[in-house]
Each structure stands twice: as structure tokens, then as C-alpha cells.
């Protein structure tokens, strides 16, 4: 089987021959048969061409990570695409990181870390502590977790602020994820807006949406 289109069709249908080994067959975008097989979870156990990449820098490993098909012994977590997003970013975004993963500070070109991706997907481990990891805008993992509702019970780093001065508390107030026992309502950002202001802003928006829906 030497024809790309024929091999691609076979891969998409899970019907590649058991002795298939032409994994680097590719189209003009350098999307290989290995990429297609990774998406389907049909790569053989002894496959090792994880770093084959298309024109966007997506490796076979990126595709396998996104679909939860990486082997247990996989080690190329820092392999990055053209935007700097690593295999670990892809695995985190889809909840496919191994339980013992610890390379949370791996970052893309904007400073967005694997921990940010995991916080957005609400898959940070229970005892995660690196809340201050931040991108180039100062947006921390804690800010992202405040958006997604992934902050743990007992979280204390409410004063972590991004480059605009917005604290984790301000973001949590806007997204409705503050705990019931929150106490720092008068905390301000650079513009003087308090956490309470953000909380009331959210209530106003919810009330406005409810009014629009009722009418």
C-alpha cells in the first residue's frame, strides 16, 4: 500500500494492514498516515515516530495526546507545535495527562502553561500548588481556575493579580465561583473596582438576561 489516499482511507476506517510501516506517507500539509492512525488510536504498540510533524507543527504525539492514545511510557511532553503548544498542552486540554505528570510550567509562546490548560479543563490534580504560574499578561493558573470553577476548597491566593491589576478574587466574582465564606469584598484592582463591584456586575447581567428571556 503506497498510495497516500488509499492508506488514509484505510486508517480512517481502522483497516490498515497489520504489517503497515509507511507511516511517513503525507499530503501537501505533511499530515501523515501516522497522524490519521493516531487520531483513531490504531498505532501499533512498537510505534516510535511520535515527532513526525505537519506544517503547523502538530506531531503525531499531539494528535494521540488529544485523543487519549499515548502509551504509558511516553516522554516527549515538551514537543511543541508552531505556536509553542506542547504535547502536554494537548493532553491537558482533553483530560489525558497521566496521574504522575509534573511538568506544569511548560509554556507556549504566550506563556500559557500546561497548568493553565488543565485548569481550563478542570483536570488539575487535587494537591496542585503552582497557582502563580502566569502567562505574559500576568494571567495566572489561579485566574484560569477561577473562570472554570476549578479552585480548590480552602484556596487562599485571592490577591494574585494580572497585569491589569485584576485579582483572582475579581475574576471569581465575575464568574460566580467565589466560596460562600469569602471575606475580601473591598479588595480593589488598578481602576479602583472592588470585588463586590464585580459580584454586583454579575448579578446585574444575570438579572438582565433573565428579563430578556422572560420577555
State the main characteristics.
215 residues, mainly alpha, Serine Threonine Protein Phosphatase 5, Tetratricopeptide repeat, 2 domains, elongated
Radius of gyration, in Å, reads 22 Å
Helix count from the secondary structure assignment: 8
Structural class: mainly alpha
- The CATH topology name of the largest domain reads Serine Threonine Protein Phosphatase 5, Tetratricopeptide repeat
Q: How would you spell out the order of helices and strands?
A: HHHHHHHH
Mean residue pLDDT: 94
Q: What would you say the CATH architecture of the largest domain is?
A: Alpha Horseshoe
Total strands: the figure is 0
- CATH class membership of the largest domain: Mainly Alpha
Q: Profile the largest sheet.
A: none
The number of domains is 2
**CATH level-four homologous superfamily name of the largest domain:** Ankyrin repeat-containing domain
Query: Low-confidence parts lasting 5 or more residues at pLDDT below 50?
Result: none
Shape: elongated
Helix content: 25-40%
Separation of the first and last Cα atoms: 62 Å
Our estimate of the beta-strand percent is under 5%
